[in-house]
Amino acid sequence: MTAARLLHLSDTHLLGGGALHQGLVDTTAVLRRLLASLAGIGPLDAVVVSGDVSDDGSPESYATARDLVGGFAAQRGAQVVWAVGNHDVRGPFARVLLDGADAGGPLDAVHDVGGLRVVVLDSSVPGRGYGELRPAQLARLREVLAAPAPRGSVVVVHHPPLPAPTVLHEALRLQEPDALLAAVAGTDVRAVLSGHYHHPYVATAGGLTLVVAPGVANRTDVLVPHGLERAVRGSGACLVEVGPDGVRATVLTVAAPGDGEELFVLDEETVARIAAEYGTAGGSA
């Protein structure tokens, strides 16, 4: 059995009306360039976008994602799997990307990718930045995973079940990540694919491979002094191969003019304010 090949993208942060992300980055142009650079990637079974597709929640931004990512996938006969991130807005997300699916609650989904089961969990909390999975979502997850799939399963969730690389992201991380790991323990789940941190990150837990994709929009400086938040120009993706003998994640970076150029720095006071407004009381910021 050959490995399932998944192109894992995250945090495109697209905007409508030609607006720039943080007033500086044309994220539509960045996504176009990234996809063009991946033209030689070879056959794919799916393109997985693990959240923060949009930065402003506009229908136009989702249409851009649908057209660019969908076109890239269609050329390769690949499915597209969309997950919701904290910047996404469920209504327009569902109308444009999910053919008008009911957006009255979490936008969870299950996809069959050539025998590989891909389970999408919506970890967003409207109006906040941290992630949360409700008990009902985890109960449904356990039901879905009760019987194994022919090629195993992969879970896609925007907020990683992993420690965060910066103080701000720690305040905006997934709450009770162990509950997710417990729900998939002993099942056929091979990997969990996430985004949110804007920096590649691969770890293992309980036999699972946990993959955090680079951000398409920018890159988090994980070496910033403690308490600050800094982003620089940079973009990338992951190629995740799920085979009978294991999971392999290859980080794909795309060289572009201005790479490494500082986009913004948030001081400790600003980080604390954002953490208080969009995080949880349990955050460390």
From TrEMBL:
The keyword Zinc does not apply. Keywords: Hydrolase, Iron, Metal-binding. GO terms for molecular function: hydrolase activity; metal ion binding. Residues 5-200 form the Calcineurin-like phosphoesterase domain. InterPro entries: Calcineurin-like_PHP, CNP_phosphodiesterase-III, Metallo-depent_PP-like. It holds the Pfam family Metallophos. Belongs to the cyclic nucleotide phosphodiesterase class-III family. PANTHER family: CYCLIC NUCLEOTIDE PHOSPHODIESTERASE CBUA0032-RELATED, PHOSPHOHYDROLASE. This is Calcineurin-like phosphoesterase family protein. It comes from Kineococcus xinjiangensis. The lineage of its organism: Bacteria, Bacillati, Actinomycetota, Actinomycetes, Kineosporiales.
